[in-house]
Amino acid sequence: MSIGEAVAVFAAGIGAGTINTIVGSGTLITFPVLLAFGLPPVTANVSNTLGLVPGSLSGAVGYRRELAGQRRRLLRFAAVALIGGLGGAILLLALPSEAFDTIVPVLIAVALVLVIAQPRLAARIRARRERNGTTAHPDGGPVLLLGLMLASVYGGYFGAAQGVIYVALMGVLLNEDLQRLNALKNVLAAVVNGVAAVFFLFVAEFDWTAVALIALGSTLGGQLGAKVGRRMPPTALRAVIVVVGLLAIVQLLLK
Questions:
Q1: What distance in Å separates the CA atoms of residue 87 and residue 169, rounded to the nearest whole number?
Q2: Would you give the DSSP letter of residue 16?
Q3: Among 184, 171, 152, which Cα is nearest to 111's?
Q4: Which of 57, 66, 69, 58 is nearest to 180 (CA)?
Q5: What is the pLDDT of residues 154-209, one digit of tens each?
Q6: Distance between CA atoms of 62 and 218, rounded to whole angstroms?
Q7: pLDDT tens digits for range 22-33
Q8: Is 95 left (phi over 0), alpha (psi -120 to 50) or beta?
Q9: Among 80, 88, 210, 239, which residue has the fewest nearby CB atoms (within 10 Å)?
Q10: 140 vs 207: CA distance, rounded Å
Q11: Which of 31, 79, 58, 26 is closest to 192 using CA atoms?
């Protein structure tokens, strides 16, 4: 890797770490860069996954205040993400990439609709519960756990816009502030990337230069993303999620 290529990968890592912490979809920055510099798709994917783990951890640390009071919920969600992420990593080596090419843009589009409609949907759900005299499950119930597991399978497989899907699911089924949901999203992304990376260590080949550069860049980006994201009002954060999600759909359809 030349000096210019190394700088480009490092810069992509910073961008990916930043956008992952705020929204998700950082993979759509780093993965194409690695492909452009000649890495085979599977090698680029697994190297990118491992390199982004420190960035996910950095973003989670940056959002630690918003995690206060969510320990029990976080442990349940993390266990589900661990299982799903491992399943997705196994599928990456077992299935052709075409298996996800059609469904992924659809998943992201549905998630964006949920993100946009989340305030209205949440209000309707609360009103229905009040009429029926029922209370919300503090952790979203089995439906949310199943949704998070499926999203984690996708995250272990590729992960572009995984964070958008997480936020959409939790936003509809949890009565929480968007920033606190974003904090959960960052931890779940770290779990999925981490378990997938550990699995890949035993069965796949890495480009260790790319891993190191992305890891350094994404760690810096994670802190930058936390500083920016935590200052965003809910409406602005939701708008950023929608814009990034739309860009992800366009990039996936044109690749």
A1: 20
A2: H
A3: 171
A4: 66
A5: 888 877 778 888 888 888 788 888 889 889 999 999 999 899 889 988 888 899 99
A6: 13
A7: 877 788 788 888
A8: beta
A9: 239
A10: 39
A11: 79
Q: Which residues contact 158 (CB under 8 A, 6 or more apart)?
A: 27, 45, 88, 92, 100, 104
Which ranges in 95-207 belong to alpha helices (H)? 98-101, 103-132, 141-157, 162-173, 178-203
Give the DSSP per-residue string, 50-78.
HHHHHHHHHHHHHTGGGGTT-HHHHHHHH
Q: Are 111 and 245 in contact (CB under 8 A)?
A: yes
Both structure tokens of 138: 């503090």
Euclidean distance between CA atoms 254 and 225, whole angstroms? 27
Q: Tokens 């989340």 appear where?
A: 118
The contacts found for 2-5 with CB under 8 angstroms, 24 or more apart, are 5/37
The first and second tokens of residue 22, run together, are 């705020």
Q: How far is CA 114 from CA 55, 93, 135, 137, 226, in A?
A: 26, 31, 22, 19, 23
Provide the token pair at 91: 């599928």
Question: Tell me, what's the pLDDT at 135?
Answer: 59
